[in-house]
Amino acid sequence: xxxxxxxxxxxxxxxxxxxxxxxxxxxxxxxxxxxxxxxxxxxxxxxxxxxxxxxxxxxxxxxxxxxxxxxxxxxxxxxxxxxxxxxxxxxxxxxxxxxxxxxxxxxxxxxxxxxxxxxxxxxxxxxxxxxxxxxxxxxxxxxxxxxxxxxxxxxxxxxxxxxxxxxxxxxxxxxxxxxxxxxxxxxxxxxxxxxxxxxxxxxxxxxxxxxxxxxxxxxxxxxxxxxxxxxxxxxxxxxxxxxxxxxxxxxxxxxxxxxxxxxxxxxxxxxxxxxxxxxxxxxxxxxxxxxxxxxxxxxxxxxxxxxxxxxxxxxxxxxxxxxxxxxxxxxxxxxxxxxxxxxxxxxxxxxxxxxxxxxxxxxxxxxxxxxxxxxxxxxxxxxxxxxxxxxxxxxxxxxxxxxxxxxxxxxxxxxxxxxxxxxxxxxxxxxxxxxxxxxxxxxxxxxxxxxxxxxxxxxxxxxxxxxxxxxxxxxxxxxxxxxxxxxxxxxxxxxxxxxxxxxxxxxxxxxxxxxxxxxxxxxxxxxxxxxxxxxxxxxxxxxxxxxxxxxxxxxxxxxxxxxxxxxxxxxxxx
Length: 574
Prior knowledge:
This protein is an alpha+beta fold and 574 residues long. Helices cover 33% and strands 11% of the residues. The protein has 18 helices and twelve strands.
């Protein structure tokens, strides 16, 4: 794939025969030393020759094939003229266009592009391409979500009427009204200034906490307490419970709130248990009891495959032992403390997003084996990881409701929350396996003295992130050392290319099958199309046709405000 437009840094003659120049370049490259120019550039300054040679090669790259190759542009100015740029745009579909995702996984029915298949020649027995980023070739089997109940099904539409538009615009606020748990995070709200698509950005760690059934004296009810305390004015209490940042410019309809209350009371397992606690408190407010949300034990089947049952959330009356229920979530009757919910609990997401999971569907849990796998000492990688689970969920399947893809800003928030859990799980693994990365070599007293530590309190155990952790300090230093080593061997790079993602690519718009959805609602498609075109660009650079064989290169990725950037540094032998 080649860029649509660009800037040049040197000039050549007014008219250039592209195909003849490329052939001449290929012949001269084989017989010309690296530091000599093989082009008719009238200059004795080596730096200027290098700059002009780079410009001509970029021209060859831009018009290497398709309709644009027959167009001879005027190349005397420092920028492509408008006619040349338009010719490149017209030829774009013929150079880099993959169409809509027409392929379907034979196991889980996830849709994908042919360019995403594993090996272009690999095929299944039926002749279809092989794709394993969704279910790992049938090793992951998760039952589909049930159709959403009313009125959620009719309101959560991108092509609905005025009520649907009002609901989808404020869906994150409506979900906050009914969340059983509170989400603690440093949310950056400065990015949503109206000049772009809505962005949900957090800094630091995410915490999900749950409180008691009854609020402390003198405090208004929030979250789970709204299901139990003063339900005679429930709608008003829920709207008043929003924080100041969430109530600015909001348009919450009390009618919609009441309809959602009725829906959750009828279908949500957690709401039913908390309503039961409300009725029990109304009859005897001195009785001591707790709500127990059951967690899986070793060897238990996956809870997401079990039907909704009262055995997964129950009211426990009388004395109980917290040690006995150490894997469960225990909701006390009245206490001033908040308990943190583990990201490893299957009800972690359902407690925070009741509008995404109206039936209180359970999520990922530890210890679940791949389908058909057996646990043995020789094969340790047989268990479903958290990343495997969410990769499965982040794939679209036709005619199946997907809470992670089809609910606009609320799905975006859930995606950020899910990947924060995945990263937290990785960090916990690193913390628990510090002995495997030879921590003793950087925890000694000599190392502390070399760092300038003078007090004994400054010497202690550190949690070290290995270079394999993306984004960590050692990861950045390792990449820096790699780049410096390449520069020491080959000198400065010949090309510095910036490759960005365009949300208006045809593949992105054609992959949105939900009526009314926009690319801002489907970040998963943007990322996948960007990766497809990225691999195509890297193939064009590495294949040796536009510029010749490359000696070395380094690639830097970064993301900024929904846009993805790629910076390849490429070294060629001229």
